Protein backbone atom coordinates (compact mmCIF):
# COMPACT_ATOMS: atom_id res chain seq x y z
CA UNK A 1 0.00 0.00 0.00
CA UNK A 2 2.77 2.55 0.73
CA UNK A 3 4.28 1.75 -2.68
CA UNK A 4 0.92 2.37 -4.38
CA UNK A 5 0.63 5.72 -2.61
CA UNK A 6 4.16 6.64 -3.74
CA UNK A 7 3.28 5.89 -7.37
CA UNK A 8 0.02 7.85 -7.27
CA UNK A 9 1.62 11.30 -7.92
CA UNK A 10 3.54 9.85 -10.87
CA UNK A 11 0.36 8.41 -12.37
CA UNK A 12 -1.47 11.70 -11.80
CA UNK A 13 1.31 13.60 -13.57
CA UNK A 14 1.29 11.18 -16.49
CA UNK A 15 -2.49 11.44 -16.70
CA UNK A 16 -2.36 15.25 -16.81
CA UNK A 17 0.34 15.19 -19.50
CA UNK A 18 -1.69 12.69 -21.52
CA UNK A 19 -4.83 14.80 -21.20
CA UNK A 20 -2.89 17.92 -22.20
CA UNK A 21 -1.42 16.17 -25.26
CA UNK A 22 -4.83 14.74 -26.24
CA UNK A 23 -6.41 18.18 -26.11
CA UNK A 24 -3.61 19.63 -28.21
CA UNK A 25 -4.16 16.91 -30.80
CA UNK A 26 -7.92 17.41 -30.72
CA UNK A 27 -7.55 21.20 -31.06
CA UNK A 28 -5.10 20.74 -33.92
CA UNK A 29 -7.49 18.51 -35.89
CA UNK A 30 -10.74 20.28 -34.99
CA UNK A 31 -9.31 23.71 -35.91
CA UNK A 32 -8.36 22.37 -39.34
CA UNK A 33 -11.92 21.11 -39.72
CA UNK A 34 -13.29 24.56 -38.88
CA UNK A 35 -11.05 26.05 -41.57
CA UNK A 36 -12.71 23.89 -44.24
CA UNK A 37 -16.21 24.13 -42.74
CA UNK A 38 -16.64 27.69 -44.07
CA UNK A 39 -14.84 27.62 -47.42
CA UNK A 40 -15.83 31.07 -48.70
CA UNK A 41 -14.99 32.94 -45.49
CA UNK A 42 -11.77 30.95 -45.19
CA UNK A 43 -10.81 31.66 -48.81
CA UNK A 44 -11.34 35.41 -48.33
CA UNK A 45 -9.30 35.50 -45.12
CA UNK A 46 -6.44 33.46 -46.55
CA UNK A 47 -6.53 35.39 -49.84
CA UNK A 48 -6.22 38.78 -48.13
CA UNK A 49 -3.41 37.50 -45.91
CA UNK A 50 -1.61 35.94 -48.87
CA UNK A 51 -1.65 39.22 -50.83
CA UNK A 52 -0.46 41.14 -47.77
CA UNK A 53 2.44 38.71 -47.39
CA UNK A 54 3.24 38.45 -51.11
CA UNK A 55 3.77 42.21 -51.61
CA UNK A 56 6.82 42.68 -49.33
CA UNK A 57 8.16 39.23 -50.24
CA UNK A 58 7.88 40.06 -53.93
CA UNK A 59 9.65 43.38 -53.47
CA UNK A 60 12.44 41.67 -51.54
CA UNK A 61 12.77 39.11 -54.31
CA UNK A 62 12.97 41.87 -56.94
CA UNK A 63 15.72 43.64 -54.99
CA UNK A 64 17.67 40.41 -54.63
CA UNK A 65 17.51 39.78 -58.36
CA UNK A 66 18.42 43.38 -59.16
CA UNK A 67 21.49 43.09 -56.96
CA UNK A 68 22.51 39.92 -58.77
CA UNK A 69 21.85 41.54 -62.16
CA UNK A 70 23.95 44.58 -61.48
CA UNK A 71 26.67 42.45 -59.88
CA UNK A 72 27.65 41.98 -56.30
CA UNK A 73 28.64 44.98 -54.22
CA UNK A 74 32.21 43.75 -54.14
CA UNK A 75 32.32 43.47 -57.94
CA UNK A 76 30.86 46.95 -58.34
CA UNK A 77 33.68 48.30 -56.17
CA UNK A 78 36.38 46.88 -58.45
CA UNK A 79 38.95 49.36 -59.79
CA UNK A 80 40.36 48.95 -63.28
CA UNK A 81 44.01 49.97 -63.72
CA UNK A 82 45.03 50.24 -67.40
CA UNK A 83 48.80 50.00 -67.63
CA UNK A 84 50.94 51.84 -70.16
CA UNK A 85 51.64 50.18 -73.50
CA UNK A 86 55.35 49.73 -72.77
CA UNK A 87 54.77 47.80 -69.52
CA UNK A 88 55.92 44.21 -70.05
CA UNK A 89 54.15 41.04 -68.96
CA UNK A 90 56.80 40.37 -66.29
CA UNK A 91 56.42 43.85 -64.81
CA UNK A 92 52.61 43.55 -64.91
CA UNK A 93 52.75 40.26 -63.01
CA UNK A 94 55.18 41.70 -60.47
CA UNK A 95 52.99 44.77 -59.98
CA UNK A 96 49.97 42.53 -59.39
CA UNK A 97 51.90 40.64 -56.70
CA UNK A 98 52.93 43.92 -55.06
CA UNK A 99 49.32 45.12 -54.91
CA UNK A 100 48.13 41.82 -53.45
CA UNK A 101 50.44 42.45 -50.52
CA UNK A 102 48.70 45.70 -49.60
CA UNK A 103 46.38 45.68 -46.56
CA UNK A 104 43.69 47.68 -48.37
CA UNK A 105 43.58 45.29 -51.35
CA UNK A 106 41.39 42.19 -51.26
CA UNK A 107 42.26 40.65 -54.63
CA UNK A 108 43.99 41.49 -57.92
CA UNK A 109 43.23 39.98 -61.32
CA UNK A 110 45.62 40.46 -64.22
CA UNK A 111 44.07 40.56 -67.68
CA UNK A 112 46.37 40.22 -70.64
CA UNK A 113 45.89 42.07 -73.95
CA UNK A 114 44.92 38.74 -75.54
CA UNK A 115 42.13 38.24 -73.00
CA UNK A 116 40.85 41.75 -73.57
CA UNK A 117 40.90 41.22 -77.33
CA UNK A 118 38.97 37.98 -77.03
CA UNK A 119 36.38 39.66 -74.82
CA UNK A 120 35.89 42.40 -77.39
CA UNK A 121 35.39 39.78 -80.09
CA UNK A 122 32.79 37.89 -78.06
CA UNK A 123 30.80 40.74 -76.55
CA UNK A 124 31.57 43.84 -78.49
CA UNK A 125 30.79 42.62 -81.98
CA UNK A 126 33.98 44.29 -83.18
CA UNK A 127 35.67 41.28 -84.79
CA UNK A 128 36.08 42.83 -88.25
CA UNK A 129 37.33 46.15 -86.91
CA UNK A 130 39.84 44.38 -84.67
CA UNK A 131 41.14 42.31 -87.57
CA UNK A 132 41.60 45.49 -89.60
CA UNK A 133 43.76 47.05 -86.88
CA UNK A 134 46.36 44.30 -87.07
CA UNK A 135 48.54 44.48 -83.96
CA UNK A 136 46.84 44.19 -80.58
CA UNK A 137 46.48 47.75 -79.23
CA UNK A 138 45.22 46.74 -75.78
CA UNK A 139 47.39 47.08 -72.64
CA UNK A 140 47.63 44.89 -69.56
CA UNK A 141 44.80 45.61 -67.09
CA UNK A 142 44.71 45.06 -63.35
CA UNK A 143 41.28 44.53 -61.75
CA UNK A 144 41.76 45.50 -58.12
CA UNK A 145 39.12 44.61 -55.49
CA UNK A 146 39.49 46.89 -52.45
CA UNK A 147 39.34 45.67 -48.85
CA UNK A 148 38.66 49.10 -47.41
CA UNK A 149 37.93 52.58 -48.73
CA UNK A 150 38.07 52.24 -52.51
CA UNK A 151 38.33 56.00 -53.04
CA UNK A 152 41.65 56.21 -51.20
CA UNK A 153 42.87 53.08 -52.97
CA UNK A 154 41.96 54.51 -56.38
CA UNK A 155 43.84 57.72 -55.57
CA UNK A 156 46.96 55.74 -54.62
CA UNK A 157 46.73 53.60 -57.77
CA UNK A 158 46.69 56.72 -59.91
CA UNK A 159 50.16 57.54 -58.54
CA UNK A 160 51.69 54.33 -59.93
CA UNK A 161 54.28 55.10 -62.64
CA UNK A 162 52.99 52.18 -64.72
CA UNK A 163 49.35 53.32 -64.57
CA UNK A 164 47.97 55.01 -67.66
CA UNK A 165 44.28 55.14 -66.66
CA UNK A 166 42.44 54.25 -63.44
CA UNK A 167 38.76 53.52 -63.97
CA UNK A 168 36.69 53.82 -60.84
CA UNK A 169 33.05 54.86 -60.96
CA UNK A 170 32.58 55.52 -57.26
CA UNK A 171 29.51 57.69 -57.80
CA UNK A 172 27.67 54.92 -59.64
CA UNK A 173 28.47 52.42 -56.89
CA UNK A 174 27.37 54.87 -54.20
CA UNK A 175 24.08 55.46 -55.96
CA UNK A 176 23.57 51.72 -56.36
CA UNK A 177 24.21 51.17 -52.66
CA UNK A 178 21.80 53.98 -51.78
CA UNK A 179 19.05 52.52 -53.96
CA UNK A 180 19.54 49.02 -52.57
CA UNK A 181 19.58 50.40 -49.02
CA UNK A 182 16.41 52.37 -49.69
CA UNK A 183 14.75 49.31 -51.21
CA UNK A 184 15.72 47.18 -48.23
CA UNK A 185 14.27 49.74 -45.82
CA UNK A 186 11.12 49.93 -47.93
CA UNK A 187 10.76 46.16 -47.72
CA UNK A 188 10.87 46.28 -43.92
CA UNK A 189 8.35 49.15 -43.75
CA UNK A 190 5.94 47.35 -46.08
CA UNK A 191 6.46 44.09 -44.21
CA UNK A 192 5.58 45.80 -40.92
CA UNK A 193 2.48 47.52 -42.30
CA UNK A 194 1.17 44.57 -44.28
CA UNK A 195 2.10 42.16 -41.50
CA UNK A 196 -0.04 44.27 -39.18
CA UNK A 197 -2.82 44.05 -41.75
CA UNK A 198 -2.51 40.26 -41.85
CA UNK A 199 -2.56 40.23 -38.06
CA UNK A 200 -5.81 42.24 -38.01
CA UNK A 201 -7.41 40.00 -40.64
CA UNK A 202 -6.72 36.87 -38.61
CA UNK A 203 -7.79 38.59 -35.41
CA UNK A 204 -11.10 39.69 -36.89
CA UNK A 205 -11.80 36.22 -38.33
CA UNK A 206 -11.04 34.53 -35.02
CA UNK A 207 -13.14 37.13 -33.20
CA UNK A 208 -16.15 36.21 -35.33
CA UNK A 209 -15.54 32.55 -34.57
CA UNK A 210 -15.34 33.33 -30.86
CA UNK A 211 -18.61 35.25 -31.00
CA UNK A 212 -20.35 32.29 -32.62
CA UNK A 213 -19.16 30.05 -29.76
CA UNK A 214 -19.74 32.55 -26.96
CA UNK A 215 -22.24 30.41 -25.09
CA UNK A 216 -20.02 27.33 -25.33
CA UNK A 217 -17.08 29.31 -23.93
CA UNK A 218 -19.27 30.60 -21.10
CA UNK A 219 -20.25 27.07 -20.10
CA UNK A 220 -16.60 25.97 -20.15
CA UNK A 221 -15.66 28.89 -17.90
CA UNK A 222 -18.41 27.99 -15.42
CA UNK A 223 -17.15 24.39 -15.37
CA UNK A 224 -13.69 25.67 -14.40
CA UNK A 225 -11.85 25.36 -17.73
CA UNK A 226 -8.58 27.27 -17.80
CA UNK A 227 -7.91 30.09 -20.23
CA UNK A 228 -5.29 27.95 -21.95
CA UNK A 229 -7.83 25.17 -22.50
CA UNK A 230 -10.34 27.59 -24.05
CA UNK A 231 -7.77 29.51 -26.07
CA UNK A 232 -5.97 26.51 -27.58
CA UNK A 233 -8.37 25.70 -30.47
CA UNK A 234 -8.43 29.33 -31.58
CA UNK A 235 -4.62 29.54 -31.52
CA UNK A 236 -4.42 26.53 -33.81
CA UNK A 237 -7.09 28.09 -36.02
CA UNK A 238 -5.05 31.28 -36.41
CA UNK A 239 -1.91 29.23 -37.04
CA UNK A 240 -3.64 27.33 -39.85
CA UNK A 241 -4.78 30.59 -41.44
CA UNK A 242 -1.25 31.98 -41.37
CA UNK A 243 0.39 28.78 -42.61
CA UNK A 244 -1.95 28.35 -45.59
CA UNK A 245 -1.73 32.07 -46.42
CA UNK A 246 2.08 31.88 -46.41
CA UNK A 247 1.99 28.87 -48.74
CA UNK A 248 -0.42 30.69 -51.06
CA UNK A 249 1.79 33.80 -51.09
CA UNK A 250 4.79 31.67 -52.10
CA UNK A 251 2.72 29.99 -54.80
CA UNK A 252 1.67 33.40 -56.19
CA UNK A 253 5.28 34.57 -56.31
CA UNK A 254 6.36 31.31 -57.95
CA UNK A 255 3.66 31.74 -60.62
CA UNK A 256 4.76 35.34 -61.21
CA UNK A 257 8.37 34.18 -61.52
CA UNK A 258 7.43 31.55 -64.09
CA UNK A 259 5.51 34.14 -66.11
CA UNK A 260 8.47 36.56 -66.12
CA UNK A 261 11.34 34.09 -66.44
CA UNK A 262 11.29 33.70 -70.21
CA UNK A 263 11.05 37.41 -71.19
CA UNK A 264 13.69 38.34 -68.60
CA UNK A 265 16.03 35.65 -69.92
CA UNK A 266 15.47 36.84 -73.50
CA UNK A 267 16.19 40.44 -72.48
CA UNK A 268 19.37 39.41 -70.64
CA UNK A 269 20.50 37.32 -73.63
CA UNK A 270 20.16 40.35 -75.90
CA UNK A 271 22.83 42.02 -73.72
CA UNK A 272 25.04 38.94 -73.77
CA UNK A 273 24.21 37.94 -70.21
CA UNK A 274 23.09 34.59 -68.83
CA UNK A 275 21.06 36.17 -66.03
CA UNK A 276 17.98 34.25 -64.87
CA UNK A 277 15.42 35.07 -62.21
CA UNK A 278 16.01 33.33 -58.89
CA UNK A 279 13.29 32.40 -56.42
CA UNK A 280 13.31 31.47 -52.75
CA UNK A 281 15.54 28.69 -51.48
CA UNK A 282 14.30 25.91 -49.17
CA UNK A 283 15.49 27.72 -46.06
CA UNK A 284 13.75 30.94 -47.09
CA UNK A 285 10.53 29.05 -47.88
CA UNK A 286 10.57 27.49 -44.43
CA UNK A 287 11.21 30.88 -42.82
CA UNK A 288 8.30 32.47 -44.67
CA UNK A 289 5.95 29.67 -43.60
CA UNK A 290 7.05 29.90 -39.98
CA UNK A 291 6.68 33.69 -39.88
CA UNK A 292 3.23 33.50 -41.51
CA UNK A 293 2.12 30.85 -39.02
CA UNK A 294 3.48 32.97 -36.15
CA UNK A 295 1.48 35.98 -37.41
CA UNK A 296 -1.69 33.89 -37.43
CA UNK A 297 -0.96 32.56 -33.95
CA UNK A 298 -0.23 36.06 -32.60
CA UNK A 299 -3.44 37.52 -34.06
CA UNK A 300 -5.53 34.73 -32.56
CA UNK A 301 -3.71 35.02 -29.23
CA UNK A 302 -4.37 38.75 -28.92
CA UNK A 303 -8.07 38.43 -29.73
CA UNK A 304 -8.76 35.43 -27.49
CA UNK A 305 -6.78 36.96 -24.64
CA UNK A 306 -8.82 40.16 -24.85
CA UNK A 307 -12.09 38.22 -24.99
CA UNK A 308 -11.24 35.99 -22.03
CA UNK A 309 -10.23 38.97 -19.89
CA UNK A 310 -13.61 40.56 -20.56
CA UNK A 311 -15.70 37.43 -19.95
CA UNK A 312 -13.81 35.87 -17.03
CA UNK A 313 -16.38 35.10 -14.29
CA UNK A 314 -16.05 37.26 -11.18
CA UNK A 315 -15.97 35.65 -7.78
CA UNK A 316 -18.84 36.51 -5.42
Automatic annotation (TrEMBL):
<dbReference type="InterPro" id="IPR003838">
    <property type="entry name" value="ABC3_permease_C"/>
</dbReference>
<keyword id="KW-0131">Cell cycle</keyword>
<keyword id="KW-0132">Cell division</keyword>
<dbReference type="InterPro" id="IPR004513">
    <property type="entry name" value="FtsX"/>
</dbReference>
<feature type="domain" description="FtsX extracellular">
    <location>
        <begin position="79"/>
        <end position="152"/>
    </location>
</feature>
<dbReference type="InterPro" id="IPR040690">
    <property type="entry name" value="FtsX_ECD"/>
</dbReference>
<dbReference type="Pfam" id="PF02687">
    <property type="entry name" value="FtsX"/>
</dbReference>
<feature type="transmembrane region" description="Helical">
    <location>
        <begin position="186"/>
        <end position="206"/>
    </location>
</feature>
<feature type="transmembrane region" description="Helical">
    <location>
        <begin position="40"/>
        <end position="63"/>
    </location>
</feature>
<comment type="similarity">
    <text>Belongs to the ABC-4 integral membrane protein family. FtsX subfamily.</text>
</comment>
<keyword id="KW-1133">Transmembrane helix</keyword>
<dbReference type="Pfam" id="PF18075">
    <property type="entry name" value="FtsX_ECD"/>
</dbReference>
<feature type="domain" description="ABC3 transporter permease C-terminal">
    <location>
        <begin position="189"/>
        <end position="305"/>
    </location>
</feature>
<keyword id="KW-0472">Membrane</keyword>
<keyword id="KW-1003">Cell membrane</keyword>
<feature type="transmembrane region" description="Helical">
    <location>
        <begin position="240"/>
        <end position="260"/>
    </location>
</feature>
<keyword id="KW-0812">Transmembrane</keyword>
<protein>
    <recommendedName>
        <fullName>Cell division protein FtsX</fullName>
    </recommendedName>
</protein>
<keyword id="KW-0997">Cell inner membrane</keyword>
<comment type="subunit">
    <text>Forms a membrane-associated complex with FtsE.</text>
</comment>
<comment type="function">
    <text>Part of the ABC transporter FtsEX involved in cellular division.</text>
</comment>
<feature type="transmembrane region" description="Helical">
    <location>
        <begin position="280"/>
        <end position="303"/>
    </location>
</feature>
<dbReference type="InterPro" id="IPR047590">
    <property type="entry name" value="FtsX_proteobact-type"/>
</dbReference>
Amino acid sequence: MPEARDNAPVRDTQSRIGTWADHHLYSFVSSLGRVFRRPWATALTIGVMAVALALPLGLWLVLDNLERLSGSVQASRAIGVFLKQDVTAERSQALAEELRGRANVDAVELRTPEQGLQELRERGGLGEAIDAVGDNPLPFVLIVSPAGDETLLAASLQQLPEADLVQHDAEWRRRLDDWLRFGGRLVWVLAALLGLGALLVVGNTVRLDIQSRREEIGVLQLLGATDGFIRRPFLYLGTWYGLVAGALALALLAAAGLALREPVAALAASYGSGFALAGFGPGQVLTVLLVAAALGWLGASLVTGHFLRQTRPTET
